[in-house]
Amino acid sequence: MADLVPYEGRAALGPQGEPWGPRVPYAEGYPEPPTESVGLKEYLAIVRRQIWVVLAIVAAAVAISLYVVLTAPPRYRAVSVVRLADARRAMTGSLEAGAYDQVLGRETDVLLSQIQVLMSRQVAGDAVDQAGLRLMPVADKPYVKEVTDVVVAADAVRDTLTMTFGTANFTASVRGSEAVAGTYGQPVTVGGVQLTVSQKPSVGQTSFFVASRDEAMGSLLESFNARPRPKTDIIDLEFVANDPTFAQKVANTMALTFKLHNTANAQQQSRRRRLFLEEQMKQTDAMLQTAMNNYSGFLSRRQVFSSREKATAQEQGIVNVEIRRAELDAQRRTYRNLLEQARRSSDAGGLRALVSAPGIAANPVIQQLYEQLTGYERARDSLVTAGAARTNPDVIGLNSLIDATSTNLLSAVRNQATALDASIAALDNLKSQSTAQIAAAPSTATEEAQLAQQVAAVQKMAENLQTEHQRAKMAEAVEAGQVEIVDLADIPTFPIAAGRTRKVALGLVIGLLLGVGAAVLIDGMNTSIKRRDDIQRVMQIPGLAVIPRLMETTGQGRIARALPRLRSNGNGTRRSRADGLVTIHDARSSGAEAYRTLRTNLIFSQAVQALRTLVVTSASPGEGKTTTAANLAVSFAQQGMRVLIVDCDLRRSRLHKVFSVPREPGLTDVIIGQVEQDAVIRETSVPGLSVLSSGQLPPNPSELLGGQRMQKVLASLSEAFDLILLDTPPLLAASDGAILATLADGVVIVVKAGATEQEAAQQAMQQLTAVGARVVGAVLNDPESKLESYGGYYKYEYAAES
């Protein structure tokens, strides 16, 4: 039977004599465990192991979400409605082009452009100034709508204004100043704020915050939004606030301010056109007066009152040429004046006036450039409204395109003015030709005709300017723009939906993510050996067996196995036996089967020489080496071998308790020669199994175990037994295990799942390698069922049920 436990010396060699390396084959008849990869199953196992961490983080996240949801103040939305209509053009009788006639693309573009104007800081600043919105409501304080006609001075400091309302009067005060008394309906001034309380409010006291102008504008634009209704020219103006009355006031103020701003812009454009036409009329009147004076003076000097009949046709042609030349000359001067104004103007108004001038609007090249310019401006305004800074690369690029397009547009207009010069030169040539044709006519008649032509041409141009001027005056007088108010906002009755369920659900999801992340992090910090694969990876030795949790049954076999973690000292349930001989008390259990598997792997290893002496040790205390050694000894004895288990732990001996034998006399007594070995070897209840207890605990166990006498004792015992198992102290706790490993034929290391650190296992292997010991393999002890939590694989299903 001893030949069934062979080995090949003490060198750590494989079956073919090669050194034990990263790939270590397992014993014959023992299948290698399946390779495991980290996936969803592994993460679920991590969550199961760290379930309390995950639950704690999830509970904290949900609690925070509930607190935020329950303590958040209600929010109210007020909505006013405006319409982008062409009411101004209708009121002026089509005397002035409206927004829809400008080269701005589709109607949707007009709506979006107006929304950008509405969301601008200029409109917000006008609203703040007109409605006194620098006086903002304080949280948890009611907003009193009876406070009207608010005017905040530019130098008013940021402060809190407190108001107390009595029966006949009220008081208002700011921090650090005396209260100012006021009468209902009469204005009062306190701290740079002038206001009027129209009547006694329903509340006794309230407070306002006096904000700076920039703060008020920022707060307004942050909670304000403009939404166009699809396929309509309707815009909804929304404002959200904690107080419904304040929300209504701001929504209505923005609608009214936007309407006034649009009207003022339209009137300003009409005024600029009127002023331009008046300047042109002055120049034309002077030209007409000069032409008439020249004609009258000629008639007076020459006493000529009519032209000859034969030159009538030629003269009429020259008149037409002069008229056309005068028109072209007037257009040229108009273009040059518009070009000069556009060059001096810092906004796009000058370009729009230039493009809308007669003659230029019909030029397709100019119109195309203007469409490109307006498109670039819309794109830039959209980026700025979306929050892009002026230094944004896209904004800078659009500014460059706008500048280049503006330059090209002005160049195109200049080219058209140059073309007018060519046309005028052509007319001059035509006039010279016509004049040459009637050269034979009397010089008096010719000069008379020329002067008459000049008067007619300038007079016609003056009449046209007079008509345009009258239209501009009428358009300027119209107090309307392209914006009309459809509905003003009412005081909202119900707060807007806060999405509490969604927020709590979001908190739950975030908590789960954080909890799983924390679980993975904590689990990753655990550097202990958790699986059977870790033994080969860290220690580079084969895993011989996995010892599951040891149980002792007392009458509830199948139910008890279904509850492996149940602990009880009562009858009818399982109880943990960390030091129990499961191979004796519960031979059909999975634990006993695991020890038999360990025995089989040792018996059928493919080494050459016999394995007669085996050291069972561990890296650290409490890893189950004594229990493993005792049950392994029982398993070998049950195989029919003569087995002796020796307690070599001369510091903390335990084998005498496991087998219920006396500790003294024992091994130490045999070594020092006080007793004979036959007198201290005690048989157990297991046939073929004997025990040699530690004996008295000496002061120098390392010297005692490493001496010549210990070698002689082992040699003598080997002759009497087929297998000797040595239970030694932990390798990192004492040097006894390493010393005995040099005397034994092989070493089995016991590793506790989830407890033995990888570094400790490596240090233990280094100690054994340093002394030349041969490590047969390792046993993964799992008394706390850690392996199941870490996704390890072991299962002994063939054990019979009790």
Describe the SSE topology.
Elements: E1 6-7, H1 40-49, H2 51-71, E2 76-84, H3 87-91, H4 107-118, H5 121-131, E3 135-137, E4 147-152, E5 159-165, E6 169-174, E7 180-183, E8 187-190, E9 193-197, E10 205-210, H6 213-223, E11 224-228, E12 234-241, H7 244-302, H8 312-344, H9 349-355, H10 364-385, H11 393-437, H12 443-477, E13 483-487, H13 500-525, H14 532-539, E14 543-547, E15 551-552, H15 557-562, E16 575-576, H16 582-585, H17 590-603, E17 609-610, E18 613-618, H18 625-638, E19 643-647, H19 655-658, H20 667-671, H21 677-680, E20 682-683, E21 689-692, H22 701-705, H23 708-720, E22 723-727, H24 736-743, E23 746-752, H25 758-770, E24 775-781, H26 786-789
Parallel strand pairs: 14-24, 18-22, 18-23, 19-21, 19-22, 23-24
Antiparallel strand pairs: 1-17, 2-12, 2-13, 3-10, 4-9, 5-6, 5-10, 6-7, 8-9, 11-12, 15-16, 20-21
Tell me briefly what this model is:
The chain is an alpha/beta fold.
Written overview of the protein:
Helix content is 50%, strand content 15%. It is an alpha/beta fold. It has four domains: 52-72 and 498-523; 76-265, no CATH class; 270-487, no CATH class; 529-789, Rossmann fold (3-Layer(aba) Sandwich). An eight-stranded mixed sheet has the order 14-24-23-18-22-19-21-20, sandwiched between helices. A five-stranded antiparallel sheet has the order 3-10-5-6-7, with no helix packed on it. Strand 5 and strand 6 form a beta hairpin. Helix 4 (107-118) crosses helix 10 (364-385), helix 8 runs antiparallel to helix 9 and helix 10 (364-385) runs antiparallel to helix 11 (393-437). The chain starts with 5 loop residues before the first strand and ends in a 13-residue tail after the last helix. Residues 1-37, 98-107 and 552-578 have low confidence and may be disordered.
